[in-house]
Amino acid sequence: MTARRSLVPRAALCGFVLLLAALFGVAYAVGSAAGPVSPGMHRSGGGPASDGGSGDGMGDMPGMGH
C-alpha cells in the first residue's frame, strides 16, 4: 500500500507541471497573436536610441521640455 501512496503525489506534481506548461504556452501564443502593446512600439533592434540620443525614451513627448 505504501507504493501506491508515494505514486499519487508524484502523479499530481507531474500533472500540475504539465498544466502550468500548457498555460504558459497558451499565454505566449495569445501574446504573440495580439502583437505590440501600443501602436508605436517596435521590437528593439539593439541599435542607437531614436529620440535624439538622450537615451531616456522621452524625446517625442509633448510638454516634456528639457
From TrEMBL:
Residues 37-66 are annotated as: Disordered. Residues 1-29 form the signal peptide. Keywords: Signal. The keyword Signal applies. It comes from the Bacteria. Residues 43-66 have a biased composition (Gly residues). This is Uncharacterized protein. It comes from Streptomyces caatingaensis.
